[in-house]
Amino acid sequence: RIKASGLKMRLCTNETQVTRENFVKKLRLMGFDVSVAEVTAPAPAACRILKERGLRPHLLVHDGLVPEFAEVDKTNPNCVVLGDAAENFTYANLNDAFRVLMGMEKPVLISLGRGRYYKETDGLKLDVGAYMKALEYACDVQAEVVGKPSKRFFESALAEMGVPPEQAIMIGDDIVNDVGGAQQCGMRALQVRTGKYRPSDEKHPEVKPDAYVNNLAEAVDIILQQL
Amino acid sequence: RIKASGLKMRLCTNETQVTRENFVKKLRLMGFDVSVAEVTAPAPAACRILKERGLRPHLLVHDGLVPEFAEVDKTNPNCVVLGDAAENFTYANLNDAFRVLMGMEKPVLISLGRGRYYKETDGLKLDVGAYMKALEYACDVQAEVVGKPSKRFFESALAEMGVPPEQAIMIGDDIVNDVGGAQQCGMRALQVRTGKYRPSDEKHPEVKPDAYVNNLAEAVDIILQQL
């Protein structure tokens, strides 16, 4: 309905366990008519940064994400790219990434998101942000975060659409990463009361959405009504 | 020579991979005449805290340390005790400890030390502090650190000897954990220029030892000369 109305649309995700291709495949199976070109994700954003700065990554990411870095030179690494590696977060792999960082004069750590945790069917799992903090502390560096809530990440999504922030609206379930990040970029933001949403979000000390909606369909209703 | 001089002596260690028994065994093999009663270590200090506060730990520690917690009730845990678990720092074990913390109304995380890393023959390894930071961030809690540089840890070593801080001197190689920790407690502290010592320590922004010595034997010479 958004696309049929003529509005421009972009999916901003911090998904780093699969390629955009597989992410879109999943959404299409759910009935969403979306293409890879409509997805803004951390891995391709990181690839652009690596290319711009001549960085060759040591990857500590999920196996499913590796194809996103196919075109990147990974020989003789001069930075570490950290994603939600899940089962790849082994003691040996963490020590390997740590040693690569400690071997640099000025360690460069790029983190695909800074999520604290997420829930899967078998329970809560530590997200990439926890491992980012471990490496930051051990190496005494500050990671560069690519993905939500980074301002630059939202800006690149806007640039891809050719839309200024004041004409864009973010819809998301995460009070800090979706709503807070978009607002810092000058966009308005709706929080859906589904998914990650918790009633306590409505008393968040720093972030206040422009409005709440009960679900994604209601967000679309409201946006189309105002056209 | 220190003991023969009549001075009281205490070994303050952050060793959490083995029991005090095995730690002392290693030192005796190197020719040091020391007993378990002369060792102040994080695990027994943690056991006292657990007992005082009625805490039942979920342990994420090295297999070699588990016997130190033999007398502690570990059923239905209401806190997590984190040590340098080394190979036990698996993705599954970290998620388990995380879930225990998230299941508490007010998570209690006790960390045996806050070291960033250490070096073994096969290379640098992340130390307990890195994993402590990961769990702190994910759970939004602050760990209680038992061991150096915690003031309480030095105080318990002094209490065990019955010596006030101004009559005690610390000898150590770690500028922050040994020297800084002891000084905060009112003791004087010597830094040995061996082991962890790095020339850059002499320009440390916060900690300045009372004196430097080239090695442990020289520290003993100097102390005995002043008697």
The largest β sheet of chain A comes out as: 4 strands, parallel
Query: Strand percentage of chain A, roughly?
Result: 15-25%
Coarse morphology of chain A: globular
Q: Which chains have the largest interface?
A: A-B, 27 and 27 residues
Q: What letter string, H or E per element, gives the SSE order of chain A? A: EHEHEEHEEEHEHEHEEH
- Residue ranges of chain A: pLDDT <50 for 5 or more in a row? none
The strand line-up of the biggest sheet of chain A is 3-4-5-8
| Number of structural domains of chain A | 2
From the coordinates shown, what is the CATH architecture of the largest domain in chain A?
A: 3-Layer(aba) Sandwich
Helix content of chain A: 25-40%
CATH superfamily of the largest domain in chain A: HAD superfamily/HAD-like
Q: Which structural class matches the secondary elements of chain A?
A: alpha/beta
Enter the CATH topology name of the largest domain in chain A: Rossmann fold
Number-wise, the strands of chain A total 11
Mean pLDDT of chain A: 95
Oligomer: homodimer
Distance between the termini of chain A: 13 Å
Cα-based radius of gyration of chain A, to the nearest Å: 18 Å
Protein name (chains A, B): Phospholysine phosphohistidine inorganic pyrophosphate phosphatase
Pfam family, one (chains A, B): Hydrolase_like
InterPro entries (chains A, B): HAD-like_sf (IPR036412), HAD-SF_hydro_IIA (IPR006357), HAD_sf (IPR023214), LHPP/HDHD2 (IPR006355)
Catalytic activity (chains A, B): diphosphate + H2O = 2 phosphate + H(+)
